[in-house]
Amino acid sequence: MYCSQLYKLVKSICKELNYGFKSYSSNWILKITKTKKDHYIWGFQFPIDNASTRMICDDKAAHYDILNENKVPCFIHKYFFALPIDFKTPLALLKKYKKIVVKQNNGTGGKNIYKVCNEQEMYDAINNIAAKSGRFSISPFYEYEYEYRIILLNGKMKLCYKKIRPVVIGDGKKAIKDLIQPNITPTVDLEYVPKKNEVVQVSWKHNLGLGGIPEIVNDKKLLRQIYDLAIKAIKPLNIKFCSVDIAMVKNKLMVVEVNGGVMMEKFSSLNKQNYEIAKSIYKDAIESL
Length: 289
Known about the structure:
Blueprint lengths: L4 H13 L2 E5 L4 E6 L2 E6 L8 H7 L2 H10 L8 E4 L6 H10 L2 E5 L8 E4 L2 H12 L4 E6 L6 E7 L2 E9 L2 E3 L6 H4 L19 E3 L11 E4 L3 H15 L6 E9 L2 E8 L5 H5 L2 H16 L2
Antiparallel strand pairs: 1-2, 2-3, 4-7, 5-6, 5-7, 8-9, 8-13, 9-12, 10-11, 13-14
């Protein structure tokens, strides 16, 4: 049975608030009963927003189109059907941008996402995704150091943290494969031996589930900028409970994507403080039902 952090948190919240609680489908579906009415959480999707809004957020290319139309600075995502595979347009995008990212259009958690620098990598990435999904999207590869995640409920900021990519520090003797932590998913040459005290980022991805580290943002000026952009992003989508990923690209904040599901699995599992922050956010969401 799948026993996630969300399951533990929601169960604990319902006990405190004296709400009914029940789980289905190996804890993937959670039922909350309050004032004789049932509410269901599916995965990390709360019954606060309508289904079409959540599905648009689950579609990277679709919500790019909407944000772009509303002049919100955001990462470009071009939509493609995986079958039949048309390599002509992806190849044109690779030639235009030099580096691209090919990803499952409705993927999450950094899975089925490939950084592509040449034709063979592009063919391999598209074929890999086509074997798993009927659609994919392509975006330029944006160079940036940090990614920020802000969680919003009814227009109010509940949490904002910076995602720091995992690193190893060389000793001049061991290869990266011998230095890396087991919970990190690397995207570099594991046989490379870093020099003594050399800091090597072992992944270009920021996902916490792949080894990224969260650091709560306290800079008020930066928080204001992130919040203002996040509000611009969610307004045309008309979404109430979500997380927005934002990156600083060449000193300009841009929306990476809007997530209709609010996942805090890794964040809440790191320490007691994070657990209580996540619990408070989910409690507010449940009480707003």
